[in-house]
Amino acid sequence: MQSQSALSRLGRLHSGTAWAVLAVLAVVALVVVPVLHTVLPQDSPLYMPGWMVTLAGRFLCLALVALALDLIWGYTGILSLGHGVFFAMGGYVMGAHLTRVAHDDGSVPNFIQWLDYSDWPWYWAGFESFAFTAVMIALVPGVLAFIFGFLAFRSRVRGVYFAIITQALTFGGMHLFYRTETGFGGDTGLTDFDSLLGFDLAQAQLGLFLASAVVLIMAYLLCRWIVTSKLGRVLTAIRDAETRLRFTGYDPLRYKLFVWVVSAVLCGIAGALYVPQTGVINPSEMAPPQSIEMAIWVALGGRGTLAGAILGAGIVNVVKTWATSAYPDLWLYILGGIFIGVTLFLPHGVVGLLRRRKEASQ
Amino acid sequence: MNTLAKSMDDFRELMRRDQVFDIVNRPADNATVDMSHGVALYLESITKSFDGFRALDDLTLYIGDGELRCIIGPNGAGKTTLMDVITGKTRPDAGTAWFGNRINLLRLKEHEVAQRGIGRKFQKPTVYENHSVFENLELAMHANRGVVTSLTWRLNGEQADRIDEVLELIGLTGERDRLAGLLSHGQKQWLEIGSLLMQNPRLLLVDEPVAGMTGQETEATAELLTSLAGKHSVVVVEHDMDFVRSIARQVTVLHQGSVLAEGSMDQVQNNPRVREVYLGEEE
User: What does pTM read for this prediction?
Assistant: First the structure.
């Protein structure tokens, strides 16, 4: 009975068509990509080289960030311009693990030696264990978000004021990690990783891609569960008429805090999966423009639709990859142009445009 | 076993309610509303100043259980501040506010006041525009407000029937699945009243319910509010004197933050001081 109702709840997450689309995308990621990468001969035109698999894996991580941001911005109406800090926290936790694994011979990295420590400082303890790291990936961004969110939401900080203090949060985090004394490698950050869970990182591209894909699908279903439940309707009600909701007997603080922490944890997981695929984590991930760019992904794809957020992250990052190599000086202008264009012409993003097309054709 | 039984007895002795200090027996914050004395709301000597301006000045007001009370008064008389104090939005500088005999309103936050059974309708109709009419009522339904509960929440048959009942009452059965944002102004007012009813409140605070309504809608609203009285206590703040005349049994006139007069509509209208400060300006 229990499992049956759980199944029927799963069924109600989506219409049949949407489930089919999701299944096709999952097959592409989990079957087609591995085949293209491993089975096809290297001279085949469809062969997918390792760098391309890694690039796709990174995009999946960024899509997860967009998903997390959409939950808090698109559905709950709380604009965060500081999600980079949660992404970086997850990234640093994973980076710390990879650094300790790379130094399992008992040596310590240069930046630790420069601080006149002969051994790892106390806050590096435990990161040699993957299990501990896995817990910390969720816990560090989660606790940071909980404390920050509790203080901000309890004081009823809203709208643009909230967005500004999230910028301050990520800006402060960036400066903290730029300091060499903080003990996380200063402006170089953490790099020179070699293996994860015993796999050589240079050979683990496909594994990391698959892990990113599985996590993204699960996170998508989790978000879908949240937004199609009554909780999701409460979140939208917070966005549309928070005072009304309060006088209806709901405490918006709890709901906001819940979704804010979920969003931060998802973002941290994305960061943790991203770092082994780029091979470095440094404080520039917490630079305010990074977080603003995340908001642009969501705005471009379409706020308040999960598929839109993923789509937006995909579009912007594909354009970015192309533009930063073809016209590196122009990239910021292009990004600014996209943002202005979306604000003026696509208030509901690409998904809104598609939806309008569909309605017009009916 | 004997020792256990004995210590249980000792424990019971210790917990006897008639033997402990009063402070230990203080009503719990989640006490249910108790109107056994026939009074729904006790407001005594409430004072609230904003930057030296006394919005409420030593105001004392009692609302009976099941009563329909109209509060009138010129702009700035303190009507909205009064609502804010009752619903926990504003804390008064002095005075006491009790809901029934047991619930101290001044210790509760807005959502807690609402959970104890006070519903409030705002002047400007506020509904969740991106939710359907049905979902608006579902969100307002009296139920556990926990985050986890809402994640696994499913409506049972009885609750769905209750929603349909309220839809019928507010005349929106045909609009069940429409987005609330697409309703007319009057329909939104009604939906908001319906949302209040879903909360099963003991006391309804209704701020200018007929503002912007057509004559016919006003009449229907008057009928609805009078039918609610008896089961619920209803406090209506309204400017429209014809409307007040059509529903009011008891009228309270506020002026400069305190009660100027109280009584039936006729008594109030013939009160010379009321005529001077309020009605006189109109007629």
Answer: 0.85
